[in-house]
Amino acid sequence: MASSALFHPNTSSLFHKTKPKAAPQKPKLYSFPVIACSSSSTDAGDSSPSLFSSLSHNHKNRRPAEENIRDEARRLAQSHNFSAKYVPFNADPQSNESYSLDEIVYRSRSGSLLDVQHDMEALRKFDGNYWKSLFDSRIGKTTWPYGSGVWSKKEWVLPEIDSDDIVSAFEGNSNLFWAERFGKQFLGMNDLWVKHCGISHTGSFKDLGMTVLVSQVNRLRKMKRPVVGVGCASTGDTSAALSAYCAAAGIPSIVFLPANKISIAQLVQPISNGAFVLSIDTDFDGCMQLIREVTAELPIYLANSLNSLRLEGQKTAAVEILQQFDWEVPDWIIVPGGNLGNIYAFYKGFKMCYDLGLVDRIPRLICAQAANANPLYMYYKTKWQEFKPVKANTTYASAIQIGDPVSIDRAVFALKNTNGIVEEATEEELMDAMAQADSTGMFICPHTGVALTALIKLRSSGVIGPTDRTVVVSTAHGLKFTQSKIDYHSNNISDIACRFASPPLQVKADFGTVMDVLRTYLEKAPK
Ligand SMILES: Cc1ncc(COP(=O)(O)O)c(C=O)c1O
C-alpha cells in the first residue's frame, strides 16, 4: 500500500538534530555602439583618443605557451588617468576630506561611513557608447582580469590596482533568468526576470564585492602595509566569500559567526577554505560589534560591507543587468536587504551608468525585508521620520536577520533618490513564495522568497503593472538553504500551513501499488 509520507527520516534529519521547527517567533533603445572593441586585455583609460586604435584590433594572437594569463595582462598593460578615493558618504560638497584607497580607513573623521568616489571627469572623457562597447567586448572571456563580470568594469571599480594584484574567480556574468512561468501563472506578468547573483563561485552575490576587497588587501600586503589577515562578522555568505578569496591568495581569514544561526552549507564553506572560524554565542549584531572592537586593536583588515570597497564590486551587478537588456532600463529592481549595503550598491551602479551617459534613467528600487528583522521597513513606514534598530528575530531568511544595519543611511539615500519602496515578508509569505518559485523551475533561497513576496504584494496592489519590466535580485543559491525547503515540504513548521508543500510519497516496492499511485497522480496532473 502506498502511504502518504513525509521525507524519509534519514533525509529530513540530515544535519538538524532539533525537533520539528516552530515558526520563528512573532515576531529605450540606444543606437549600436560605434567603436569596435576586441577582447584584448588592454587597459582602457588613457584619455587620448588614440586609445581607440589600440582597442580595435579584431584578432587576438594566442599567448606564448610559457605565458599565463597574468603574464599576458602584464605584457599588455597600458597606463591610464583614472583614479578613485574614499570620501565621507554623502559629504557636503564643500568638504575636502578624502583618503587614498591605499589607506586603511573605514570611517570619516566624524564617524560616518565612507564612499568610493571616482574621478568622473576623467571617465567622462569617453562617452556612453564607448563604455558600453568596451564592457560588451569583455563579457565572459578568459582574459585576465576582464573576463570577470566585476573586472570587466575595472575602470569603474578599482582603476588603479595592478591587474597582477587582482584575486578573481571570474565572478559575475550571472544568469538573468526570464521567469516566464512564475510571472504568468502567479502574477500575470510577461517581463519578469530573476538576476541569479547566487549562481556564483561561493553561491552568493558576496563574491562580487569580495574579489575587490581581497584584491586591494593583496595590494596592501605587497606594499608591506601591516595587514596580518582579513576578518568579518557574517550571517554566512560573507564568510564563505571572504575565506574563498583569501584562500586563493594565501591570505589568512578570520570569521565570526553567530552560533547555530547559519546553514550547514554556509558553515562548511569557510571551514573547507581554511579560515579561522569562531562560532560565537550571539547574533549577527553581536558578532559585528566584536569584530569592530577586534579590528580596532589588531592589524586585521575589516571585510564587512561597512567597508565601501565591497560595494564597488557589488554595483557591477546593476551595470550587468543593463548590459543584459542591451542597455535598456528596467522599471523595477527588487533587492532583499539585511545590512543594507547591496541596495546602495545597486543604486551606485545604475547612477554611474546614468551619469556617464550609458542610460537616460534609473529604475525604481524596492528593498524587501523579513518581517522578523525589519528596521528599514519600520523606518520607511514612519516616512523616514524615526529610525530605531530592532532585535532581529529568527527567520528562515537567516542571512538578513539583522536588526541594526550598518548601511542604513546608504539604503535610505538610494531609496529616496529612486522613488523607492520598502516591503516586508512574514515567514509564511516568504516560504510560500520560495515554494511557488521553485514549482516553476527555480531553486531559490529564502531571501529571494522575501524579494518575491514584495513583488507579489506590489503587483496585487497594482503598484507594479503587468507589463512592467521587473528584476528580482536573487542573492544566494538555493542549495545553501536546503534545510528550509526540507522543513517546508515536510509540512513540518508550526504556524505555517505550507500550502505549496510537495512531499515525496513512500511506496512499497510492488508493481500494482506503484501503478495505482501513478494513475491517481496522472489523472490530476496538468494536461
Ligand atoms: C543571501 C543574502 N541575501 C541578502 C543579503 C543582504 O545584503 P545586505 O546585507 O547588503 O543588505 C545577504 C547579506 O548577508 C545575503 O547573504
Automatic annotation (TrEMBL):
GO molecular function, one term: pyridoxal phosphate binding
GO cellular component, one term: chloroplast
Listed GO biological process terms: threonine biosynthetic process
Keywords tagged on the record: Allosteric enzyme, Amino-acid biosynthesis, Chloroplast, Lyase, Plastid, Pyridoxal phosphate, S-adenosyl-L-methionine, Threonine biosynthesis, Transit peptide
Comp. bias intervals (Low complexity): 41-56
Enzyme Commission numbers on file: 4.2.3.1
UniProt cofactor(s): pyridoxal 5'-phosphate
Compartment(s) of residence: Plastid, Chloroplast
Domain Tryptophan synthase beta chain-like PALP, residue spans: 168-475
Quaternary structure note: Homodimer.
Entry similarity comment: Belongs to the threonine synthase family.
Protein name according to UniProt: threonine synthase
Taxon lineage: Eukaryota, Viridiplantae, Streptophyta, Embryophyta, Tracheophyta
